[in-house]
């Protein structure tokens, strides 16, 4: 995936960084102002087609800038390139969190709509739970979310498409059928097989 082009070096950025580091809020606002368009383009590109309609890229960028404002005392760069790289990492983390949240929501939807055995349900329930109360529980949840994302990538394209269209984009089975050139009933069966295959892949990976 091609990285969005950074904004051209803006005259005064280095001095704004120095002023912001000294506590000038106006300089900090100017810095974030020249970076906003780049971050918005990067967020929209990273989200991809499946999640772009579900997640507002502007909201994620705003959250990123709020966090950057809070954490600016920890920024050690001196150039616009340094600043963009730092902001890009914060944005990357926030987008990853949004993806996990939507995958968890999708898994809860699968729980409700597909008849699975109790072991499979337990596995998906564990993956879909929120942050644990302890650091070790949160670390385990992150590992399970990563395993889920990897499992989704291992599915055949038509299975992944069915899950994305119905569960993520919330299309009806008739609409999914139009997208996949099949009947609504065929789309429903395809989605069911895809959900069960996802569970099987998760089981094989030990999740």
Gyration radius over CA: 21 Å
Query: By helix and strand content, what is the structural category?
Result: mainly alpha
Instruction: Provide the CATH architecture of the largest domain.
Output: Up-down Bundle
CATH class of the largest domain: Mainly Alpha
CATH topology label of the largest domain: Butyryl-CoA Dehydrogenase, subunit A, domain 3
Helix percentage range: over 70%
Largest sheet: none
Number of domains: 2
CATH superfamily of the largest domain: PhyR, sigma-like (SL) domain
Give the overall form. Answer: elongated
Number of helices: 9
Number of strands: 0
| Low-confidence sequence ranges | 114-133
Q: What does this entry show, briefly?
A:
By secondary structure, this protein is mostly helical.
Model description:
This protein has 207 residues and is an all-alpha fold. It folds into two domains: 13-98, Rna Polymerase Sigma Factor, Chain: A; 114-204, PhyR, sigma-like (SL) domain (Butyryl-CoA Dehydrogenase, subunit A, domain 3). The chain is 76% helix and 0% strand. It has helices at 13-21, 25-52, 57-71, 80-113, 118-128, 135-154, 157-168, 173-180, 184-204. The longest helix is centred in the middle third of the chain and has 34 residues, at 80-113.
């Amino acid at each position: 995936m091609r990285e969005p082009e950074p904004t051209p070096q803006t005259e005064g950025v280095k001095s704004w960084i120095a002023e912001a580091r000294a506590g000038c809020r106006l300089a900090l606002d100017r810095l974030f102002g020249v970076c906003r368009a780049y971050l918005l383009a990067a967020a929209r590109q990273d989200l991809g087609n499946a999640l772009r309609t579900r997640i507002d890229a502007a909201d994620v960028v705003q959250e990123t800038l709020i966090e950057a404002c809070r954490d600016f005392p920890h920024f050690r760069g001196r150039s616009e390139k340094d600043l963009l790289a730092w902001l890009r990492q914060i944005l990357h983390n926030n987008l990853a969190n949004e993806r996990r949240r939507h995958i968890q929501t999708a898994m809860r939807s699968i729980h409700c709509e597909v008849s699975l055995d109790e072991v499979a349900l337990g596995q998906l329930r564990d993956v879909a739970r929120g942050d644990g109360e302890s650091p070790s529980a949160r670390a385990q949840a992150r590992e399970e979310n990563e395993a889920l994302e990897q499992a989704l990538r291992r599915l055949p394209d038509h299975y992944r498409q069915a899950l994305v269209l119905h569960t993520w984009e919330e299309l009806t089975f008739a609409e999914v059928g139009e997208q996949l050139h099949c009947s609504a009933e065929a789309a429903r069966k395809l989605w069911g097989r895809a959900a069960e295959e996802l569970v099987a892949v998760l089981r094989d990976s030990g999740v």
